[in-house]
Design goal:
single chain; 158 residues; alpha/beta; seven-stranded mixed beta sheet; 5 helices; 7 strands; 30% helix
Length: 158
Amino acid sequence: MNTATKSSQLASLIAAPVRHLDDEAAMQSLGRELAELLPSGSLVSLSGELGAGKSVLVRSIIHSLGYTGRVKSPTYTLIETYDVPMPKRGIARIAHLDLYRLEDPSELDYLGFDDVLSDHQLVLIEWPAKGGDRVPQADLQVQISYTEGSGRKLVFST
């Protein structure tokens, strides 16, 4: 997909750059919405405090794209990959990275990070700042923060 087409699709995602969600069910619903709009070739970064809902959102996106198995958190493995049996919109391979436990950005070289980026049609990265300048600019950045009660505030940017 060319850069202009990808940019226009992602721009539609952030027409409302701030969203307030009341609970986990709303986060899952947003994941389904994003799955319908993310173009093949996208890199999405997710930032926020521990427990803010990054993995909930990622799990919903992956399932909504057609993966039916268990979506594991890559907290300890750092990378989990998923092959979608009946791909939607050309997204057959998805990579989910959680860089929280990364000690140094150079560790990404040992994980085959460049291959992950080139071999997957969708890459979702939690804690991208831990990867320093080794993590390319995301096509879509999602910042999740707590609000009162069980709510969350999400801010989208490109």
